[in-house]
Amino acid sequence: MGKVTVLDHPVIKHKISILRDKNTGSNEFRSIIREITILLAYEASKDFTVEEYDLNTPICATKGYRLSGKKLGIIPILRAGLGMVDGLIEVFPAARIGHIGMYRDEESLKPVEYYLKIPKDSNKRDMLVIDPMLATGGSACDAIQRLKEKGCTSLKLLNIIAAPEGIKKVQKEHPDVDIYIAQLDEKLNKDGYIVPGLGDAGDRLFGTK
Ligand code: URA
Q1: What was the ipTM of the complex prediction?
Q2: How far away, in angstroms, is 164 Cα from ligand 1 center?
Q3: How far is the CA of 63 from the centre of ligand 1 (A)?
Q4: Which pathway does the database say it acts in (predicted)?
Q5: Which residues of 38-74 are buried (b: 16+ CB within 10 A; e: fewer)?
Q6: Once rounded to an integer, what is the mean pLDDT over residues 80-98?
Q7: Whose Cα sits closest to atom 5 in ligand 1?
């Protein structure tokens, strides 16, 4: 079963509270999503490998380290996932960025993909799938499924806030995918919103409420 890592830290608690506040405007909301994503990126890359190399400081010769593992891919799930891209490329500027957009057909309830473009060599990359809210887990599972069908073999999921229902679904359907979240919330309400949550992350990021 995929591992779940929750960022348990006073700074995260502080920032999540500002995100939750309905009076926080889009500009501050975007900045904090970016800041928390940077902290998630550090946590999700703890198992990356490094190689040693020789370098000279102004004082002496010493050993340096550089990341030596697979190249990275970042896949925001449209549209709210876009809000996490800036934070990730700050930490991993060389990462390639793909996009996936899906919705559920209201009659068939089947996922319909309306956009998918990912790096050509995604099968050789570590792929970080990003979406601020892991609610029912439906779109995350559908997106991961499509990425696997496209050849991706190394996937991690990064969310700002998750509900237990979403985590359970991803763990069941994609036991090979580890999940990194900043905050685990209580539950979903009858409309599928996370409680206490922060409302609709896309609307709050882009001011479309
Ligand atoms: N998506 C959101 O943006 N918010 C929720 O609470 C659930 C899903």
Answers
A1: 0.96
A2: 13
A3: 46
A4: Pyrimidine metabolism; UMP biosynthesis via salvage pathway; UMP from uracil: step 1/1
A5: ebbbeebbeeeeeeeeeeeeeeeeeeeeeeeeeebbb
A6: 98
A7: 193
